[in-house]
Amino acid sequence: MSGGTYNVLFLCRANSARSIMAEAILKKEGHDHFFGFSAGSHPRGEIHPYTADLLQSLDHDPSEFSSKEMEVYSQKDEVKFDFVFTVCDTMNNEDCPIFPGSPMTAHWGVPDPAAVTGTEAEKRLAFADAYRMLRNRISIFTSLPFQSLDRLSLQHKLDEIGQITSSEDA
């Protein structure tokens, strides 16, 4: 792949936590070369309150993000995607629509912080852990030498990033 700018879509079932976090991270750290988007197969319709709180505390503006259906992007030709990443295991097993641009795809599953039970502190920690894991993967992704990788090599790297375990995300 050549250098330049890349559009990246992050998919998750509810599009209220992980995919929103990934979009926010890429927006902040994409260095004008990567543009992040997010959507869900069954969107919640709003950002999870803990996601909004976490993003706010990390200097992201949560009002810039919204929970939306993935068909918003598959039915339009306005955005051509270079990459589509699923960030929840449920989405990895669902059929996805065809997105404009013939994007490369990979599964970057991250545990669902919204599914965590326990104290408020434990729940918020789960959101912070998800953010940390996504930020690490996105940092690795944006540091790849795109100009020197052919499509097959790049696909291998994308798959490897998705295999990073939480213990490796430190």
Walk me through this protein's architecture.
This protein is an alpha/beta fold and 170 residues long. The chain has helices at 18-29, 49-57, 71-74, 89-92, 120-142, 151-162, and strands at residues 6-12, 34-40, 83-86, 104-107. The protein has a 4-stranded parallel beta sheet. Strand 1 (6-12), helix 1 (18-29) and strand 2 (34-40) form a beta-alpha-beta unit. The two termini are 29 Å apart. The mean pLDDT is 90.
Q: Please report the total strand number as a whole number.
A: 4
Give the ordered list of helices and strands: EHEHHEHEHH
- Large-scale geometry: globular
Strand order of the largest sheet: 2-1-3-4
What oligomeric state do the depicted chains represent?
single chain
Radius of gyration: 15 Å
Structural class: alpha/beta
Unreliably modeled segments: none
What fraction of the residues are assigned to beta strands by DSSP? Answer: 5-15%
- The average pLDDT is 90
How much helical structure, as a percent, in the residues? 25-40%
Please give the alpha-carbon distance between the first and last residues: 29 Å
